[in-house]
Amino acid sequence: MAHAGTLEIKNLNKQYTVKGEPLPVLENISLSIKPGEFVSIVGSSGCGKSTLLRLVIGLEQEYQGEILLDGKRIVGTSLDRGIVFQEHRLFPWLTVEQNVGVGLLNADLSPAQKKKTVDEHIALVGLKGFETAYPYQLSGGMSQRVAIARALVNRPEVLLLDEPFGALDALTRSHLQQELQRIWEAEGITAILVTHDVEEAVYLGDRVVVMQPRPGRIKRIVDVPLPRSRDRGSYAFSQIKDDVLSEFSDTPHSDVKLVTPQESLGANWQFAW
Q: Residue 41: enclosing H or E segment and its boundaries?
């Protein structure tokens, strides 16, 4: 099992330069993520969700503030952080086994150890028996499973997920959300999910970070104190989902009243047959 990392983001600001003028993208982002926690980040397009993930993975260096993993400033990419994008980005000329093995090219392991680790992670994502298949022989959901296995094969401290199921159909997405939860629990690592799907955010996250755009900043953090696995049809789940959705409506949060099932039926209700 991998070591779960502690991530600290302190007073993070990020801007680009467009036609000689500064364009603020992220403003005063501060967030502490505990070891083994699953944090979902939601927000409309342009709120800087993916930029934040790129900074955490180390793909961009120019920013103000601090991003710390286990107390050390993040500098560049590293094997202690794995990432899964919306597109699986598999090499079409490599098999499933070889694509997952790409993640171990620089690992200090013997060939036998690499083979064992790759086999373990292919089994972890439910693709045992597909080791020699090529990407064109896989469905979109299966390809994303390979991408997840490749991101995890180094046993990173933090798994970053940038809209990993956004291109999939609703049924496949729902199934893979369940699978991702299972994989996260099995690996015991810290996970950060960026998504525009509020239901997905609530289903997977211990907390949901709501961001607002231009420039991107944290509007609110919503706790999700529900046991796993979660029932999407439950009243408690719907309450939290509606609470998060209210942050994207014109209704002020203070005007949104969460009621109990009994209250929603009214004091003097009866059924007519």
A: strand 38-42
Euclidean distance between CA atoms 151 and 154, whole angstroms: 7
Q: Are 82 and 58 in contact (CB under 8 A)?
A: no
User: Do residues 246 and 256 make contact, with C-beta atoms less than 8 angstroms apart?
Assistant: yes
Q: Which amino acid is at 255?
A: D
Euclidean distance between CA atoms 42 and 201, whole angstroms: 7
Provide Rg for the chain, Cα atoms: 20
149: nearest Cα among 169, 167, 172, 176: 176
Distance of CA 33 to the CA centre of its chain: 13
Collect all residues with Cβ–Cβ distance below 8 Å to 72 and sequence separation of at least 6.
Answer: none
- With a pLDDT cut of 70, the percent of the chain lying above it is 90
Give per-residue pLDDT as tens, 129-172. Answer: 999 999 999 999 999 999 999 999 989 999 999 999 988 889 99
Q: How far, in Å, CA of 33 to CA of 40, rounded?
A: 11
How wide is the angle at C-alpha 184 spanned by C-alphas 107 and 61, nearest 5°? 55
Q: Which domains does the chain have, with CATH numbers?
A: 1-80+193-273 (3.40.50.300)
| Each residue's pLDDT tens digit, 182-202 | 999 999 999 999 999 999 999
191 vs 39: CA distance, rounded Å: 6
Residues 158, 177 contacting (CB under 8 angstroms): no
Question: DSSP of 93-117, one letter per residue?
Answer: TS-HHHHHHGGGTT-S--HHHHHHH
